[in-house]
Amino acid sequence: MILARTINALNEARARLGDLGLVPTMGALHQGHLALIAAAKAAGRPVAASIFVNPLQFGPHEDFAAYPRDEAGDLAKLEAAGCDLVWLPETATMYPPDAATTISVAGPALLWEGAARPGHFAGVATVVAKLFGQVRPVAAYFGEKDWQQVQVITRMVEDLRLPVVIAPVPTVREPDGLALSSRNRFLTPAERDAAPALFAALTAAASAIAAGRDVTATLANARDTVTKAGLQPNYLELVQAQTLDPLTSLTRPARLITAARLGRVRLLDNVPV
Asked: Is the pTM of this model over 0.85?
């Protein structure tokens, strides 16, 4: 496995490896990330992963400093998974002091996480565009757990005509349904016991809506269920799958999306309807 920490080293590795699949990450890797590596490898081309905790996507009161970092552990997991190249840029490489360009996003970036975390998706789009320009992958792999993020990146790629295929990969879950996340490690034992209620409420609501139940009443019941389980829902909504526009009746393709706070952790999840 090749480690590249400078643009020159990255370019040399690209010249050796040829066409690449890319898995962008912020490190603190878990089985969900490794599923992305496996999906990229299944395409039959060399796989690159990036590790960069992107300051631009964190708000002023968010957990950038506390975000988990474990480079040695991450590299061991990537090597065991058969990753061919790891791109480990410095902050100055990604954001030079004289940098004057960022990506502005609208459309699927405006609501939900976009409203709850102003500037977040501009930071995501900017760093992903930079990674695409640096690594120049043929395809890039993103987990569906961050459904809105996948739609924002897909829209950006389409709008800018970037020569990369966006490949979503299904959410990887614990046996009790909790979606894997690097932040799950911050849950206390009691919070971890409560956390699967979010996925359970989503799946119950998806079944009810698919069966023709009233959407507004079903969503209200799901929010109540989540609250009674000890979580604080930020939103739990039915949306059009690509645009993220809210729906009051079932129009396919549709997605149930949610974010809820549990202790110090903000859990995100979604399911198709």
From this structure: yes
